[in-house]
Task: inverse folding
């Protein structure tokens, strides 16, 4: 470990050197079950043979060209992703991360809205949309924004789930779009209720505003659907994807209706949609399809929630929530960091989503036995932290 890396993340003290399926090894030879799953960015686990082969084949064939030329992997991937939005003629913009996908979405709805006198975007309190200037302004977490303010003033935040507040925000007629995560990941893994999402869609239609679904954490099978918003039977106007898309390589996408799409010179990215990440993403999508990983995410997610509820010591967990394999365990005390550290000692990796939520977003290929190992490790980590901190129900 070196001090040369900016410590923008509060890291756990292990150095990982190798991975296979859901197992990773550190530089001292210890192995761990990876329930962190790169916060959803490793949907096929580690070194999945279809993913590594796709990357090897593509690096041998064609590594990088500029976006001034078409490539087969990019065209194929665009066709696949356009098909995720149930509208004719969807268009895809490729970039390299979630924040960039959301930047594209924000620029796109701003351009459309400004043309009709609608400069504002409504987002949700507690949301997370990225760390760039505009996506940070969109993020509904004041503590993350504070050191950088004033940021752009295009965003108004309303309470998630409060449809009256959303209605009031849209009533002024100056809103270009509503931006939301169907399952709010970083904010603590809070799935939005289908009725709320349907009501937001109806309000957007009524007030001629667009709906952006940030599916960067929730999309591509993670929640048991290609898009988590399908659970509510709602069709957004713009969808953003990243994390799981490249199976571990950096790629993001912003998908929208043809009439909203950017034209030449309006947006761009040197690396966006390069042949190698696109080939990796095609392998991810085909594997999800061929191995029916949407069903697996539903089933294994249900098993994980049940096992945790069954095994966890009474009184330390307030709620186990989530959709598919995006699971949040709400603790009764803000000891998530201590619990995740104790889980690592038990040989299982997980992440925190706030001070009092343990998040698990493992590879979608997870087996039932691995679910059981993870639930047991969480239960014993909870017991150990509870006795160290005099944490009683
Ligand atoms: N949007 C959501 C919902 C996210 O969960 C994240 C990352 O956690 C982002 C946007 C930002 O993605 P990235 O870190 O790839 O820029």
Result:
């Amino acid at each position: 470990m070196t001090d040369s890396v900016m410590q923008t993340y509060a890291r756990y003290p292990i150095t990982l050197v190798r991975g296979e399926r859901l197992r990773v090894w550190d530089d001292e030879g210890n192995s761990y079950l990876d329930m962190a799953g790169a916060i959803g960015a490793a949907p096929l686990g580690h070194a999945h043979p279809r993913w590594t082969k796709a990357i090897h084949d593509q690096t041998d064939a064609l590594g990088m060209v500029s976006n001034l030329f078409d490539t087969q992997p990019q065209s194929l991937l665009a066709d696949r992703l356009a098909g995720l939005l149930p509208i004719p003629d969807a268009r895809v913009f490729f970039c390299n991360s979630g924040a960039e996908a959301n930047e594209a979405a924000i620029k796109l709805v701003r351009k459309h809205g400004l043309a009709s006198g609608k400069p504002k975007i409504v987002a949700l309190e507690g949301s997370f949309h990225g760390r760039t200037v505009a996506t940070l302004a969109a993020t509904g977490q004041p503590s993350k924004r504070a050191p950088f303010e004033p940021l752009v003033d295009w965003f108004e935040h309303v309470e998630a789930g409060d449809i009256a507040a959303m209605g009031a925000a849209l009533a002024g007629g100056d809103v270009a779009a509503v931006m939301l995560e169907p399952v709010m990941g970083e904010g603590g893994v809070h799935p939005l209720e289908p009725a709320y999402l349907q009501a937001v869609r109806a309000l957007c239609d009524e007030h001629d505003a667009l709906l952006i679904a940030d599916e960067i954490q929730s999309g591509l099978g993670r929640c048991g659907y290609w898009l988590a918003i399908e659970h509510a039977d709602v069709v957004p106007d713009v969808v953003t994807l990243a994390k799981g898309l490249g199976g571990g390589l950096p790629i993001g996408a912003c998908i929208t209706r043809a009439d909203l799409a950017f034209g030449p010179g309006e947006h761009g990215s040197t690396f966006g949609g390069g042949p190698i990440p696109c080939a990796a993403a095609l392998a991810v999508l085909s594997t999800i399809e061929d191995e029916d990983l949407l069903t697996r995410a539903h089933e294994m997610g249900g098993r994980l929630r049940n096992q945790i509820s069954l095994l966890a010591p009474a009184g330390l967990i307030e709620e186990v929530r989530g959709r598919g394999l995006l699971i949040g365990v709400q603790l009764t005390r803000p000891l998530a960091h201590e619990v995740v550290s104790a889980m690592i000692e038990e040989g299982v990796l997980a992440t925190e989503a706030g001070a009092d939520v343990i998040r698990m977003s493992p590879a979608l290929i997870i087996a039932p036995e691995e679910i059981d190992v993870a639930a047991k490790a969480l239960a014993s980590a909870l017991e150990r932290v509870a006795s160290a901190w005099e944490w009683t129900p």
